[in-house]
Amino acid sequence: MSIRIQRFGEHLKMPWKNGLGITREVISRPASDGLGGFDWRISLATVGASGPFSIFSGIDRTIVVLEGDGMQLTVDGRQEPPLTVESVPFVFSGDAEVQADCLGGETLDLNVMSRRGCFVHRMTKIDVSDAQTLSLTAETVAVVFRDEAVVAIDSLRSEVGLGDVLVGLDGPLQLAVEPRGSGCMLYIIEVNTLSAETPDAEQVA
Description:
By secondary structure, the chain is mainly beta. It has strands at about 5, 10-15, 20-30, 40-45, 50, 60-70, 70-75, 80, 90-95, 100, 105-115, 120-130, 130-135, 140-145, 150-155, 155-160, 165, 175-180, 185-195. It has no helices and 19 strands.
């Protein structure tokens, strides 16, 4: 797949595994059945009411709030700090029982999941206040945008906004970002394959 911008409206909409909400799947390898039959997956979910998260056994997860009032997560009975747009990405196990309590209105969040022992992922939150060029590693599979900006990579130059995602990346690349307004928040997502000889690496948000 060549490098392109996948717009928010182009993401595949599907019900949550537990049927209590809707997610927009950005990319999944292999193609997702919506029930957890993937090695790794990136998605955007709209949370409009308090309730439990789906359980994904054997999956490691990272979540961050892109827009809205945020939510309070209780993971296996432990209440975590409020998750808002200012928070760093939160890492947790897909095996855990998670209750999400809304802190106000609707929230849009970004989720990354990978199969434990086979893959390990990393989500890095970057605040771009002025025009700059970012270095993407060979393991970068997507860049998710929260704010309006003009981006350029190889021969591609495009305007982006909330929920737009740069996909089809292949190899180390340079990404130029020019914020529209006061700044641009974006999230770089990397996925590494673990060999039989490679010990599980700790996720870093």
